[in-house]
């Protein structure tokens, strides 16, 4: 691990340990925006990470971004950091300089967003954001408009983890600017970022689920022994530890491939993996905690509900398997050649390795 | 938890070139008809000719020091060779244990004479080893083993019996774990030693145990008053248990814990593409994703082993997850491409499906059962 990355991780870890507490998350679920947490995150330059300093950003690269998002997941921080980082980068790329605001992008895929009044659904943190960058299909090109979220009518909704996914209705798009990408390309770019963000955040959440489980299995006694002395409990711990180690390796490899030729395939595999194993971890942890884990009081659900929510976001297993299947069909390469990134000498008509 | 944080490892251009070289060689050999692709070839694919060919290339014991005939190359190069051999389903069983375990053990604990005697032959692909651990009444509870070696002038007299000994009928030697002093209830793992037994010695009887396919893979090895000279004890007398543990991370996290059924997966995907079966490819892509993730883990561990880091916990996890994955391949593929699996099918797919199903249960047993492994990891996680 490079030292800069682990330094940033440690710093963010300290901030979140102090500010993304169980009490803070509970207040958030009762409807209170985590303003001091968000302010600290902004002041630390995290929202502008990955943007060059000349453009008003905080420097750093994408590996830092995903390393930090892992820490965000580890502390189940109730903030839309991934979405805001993407929106800020989008603006930096298209407008030059960015002012740090609470903004997200939204791709107008739903039919309700085609004509005025426009209705966008499942907007992350819609009730708390300053503005939403709406990306729409116009002729064969994509265009974007910056809409003031404060004038939108809000219908509240949330995902399994009580993270806001609101509907925003408004009648005026305002100024529309063309993108030099197709809508599909722009959307794919976002999907990849979001998927890898969720991979990072789920890795962190899995770590915390394991840590809570280890703690509880030492503390709780039954039959005169701590739970971890029971073989069946050891097997649950092993199942979780296995997925945590696999998630780590997956995140490390996939985030190193971001923005390279390999990114699409690797992000697809990474998101399939994390989504598929989210419940391996959640299920084992709940079984180990039994009754207490089913209460609002215990914080296990802050992490397991996020795992269940995030496995759907940025494309679930079905979405990415569909992409991979098309990729396999379209190319001559064997699976082994693509996994090892080395092509054999012979053309592979007919029999393979 | 730091022990679970595995790094990304990028193969260098030189390493990619090397992979290409190994692959081209295997491709050419396969085309010449030197071998057919089989699932689980590292357990059951015996070919002395093939082992010698691989040896002549310098690809057995490639990490061993040059003075004994090795190439002193990195564990990453060995990793590449191993992966390519398994992906091709090549017959590597003859030399497998010598390359993976016995050679490294002798190099680490053996005498100069032992190194000079065994290593050059291992490297040439001419000297094969078996692993003599399990006994009829000592499986998972290996420390309860009963085979004993008694000190006599100039050596040891061994009596006892080993079982499930893979390839003993092909091997020249067996590294035999036996008691060299009485079991001490306070130190169950003390008092055992590793002896190299020449399988042609007087008093050694090897009897086949039929594998459930009817084939001959493993054996019972009876040891009756077998004389083993002093110079065939590996390392320290009484330290056999601890010595046996040292290479465990390599054994548990290697590609053979992930790729045993990979040739079936590759063939299935080729067929699904031929049929343009999009749904089928979608399902298969999930297996590929799992394999990719486990391979990243395994390579991350190999990279840390090269830096001499302690990776025992993560290595045990690779074996657990990898073995389950290997089993799951046949279970999913059979639903995507229905066929009558048969060991005797001419159709490669139907044959490898049969091999994968019939060998499958052994994946989570050999090299330590999943139950035992999970116990070890569970305790490790708690104390980490
Ligand atoms: C294909 C194959 C090749 C092999 N090759 C070799 C070889 O070359 N050399 C060699 O020495 N051995 C070899 N073995 C033997 C292998 O190492 C043993 O089978 C294995 O260690 C288990 O021992 P056992 O079969 O006696 O089962 P047992 O130990 O009797 O176990 C039976 C069941 O009980 C479970 N169990 C046992 N103890 C516990 C416990 N404490 N807690 C929970 N569950 C427990 C086990 O997990 C298993 O499910 C091979 C085995 C196979 C299948």
User: So what's the overall shape of chain A?
Assistant: globular
How many domains of chain B, as an integer?
3
Going by helix content, strand content and strand pairing, the class of chain B is alpha+beta
Residue stretches of chain B low in confidence (pLDDT < 50, at least 5 long) are: none
So what's the CATH class of the largest domain in chain B? Mainly Alpha
Kindly, what is the distance between the CA atoms of the first and last residues of chain B, rounded to a whole number of angstroms? 8 Å
Arithmetic mean pLDDT of chain A: 93
CATH-level-2 architecture of the largest domain in chain A = Up-down Bundle
Q: Which CATH architecture of the largest domain in chain B is right?
A: Up-down Bundle
Greatest interface: A-B, 58 and 65 residues
Strand content of chain A: 5-15%
SS summary, helix count of chain B:
13
In percent, how helical is the residue content of chain B?
40-55%
Label the overall shape of chain B: globular
User: Mean pLDDT of chain B, nearest integer?
Assistant: 96
Largest sheet of chain B: 4 strands, mixed
Instruction: Tell me the number of strands of chain B.
Output: 8
What share of residues of chain A is helical? 40-55%
Organism (chain B): Cytobacillus citreus
Pfam families (chain B): Acyl-CoA_dh_M, Acyl-CoA_dh_N
Keywords (chain B): Oxidoreductase
Domain Acyl-CoA dehydrogenase/oxidase N-terminal (chain B): 12-126
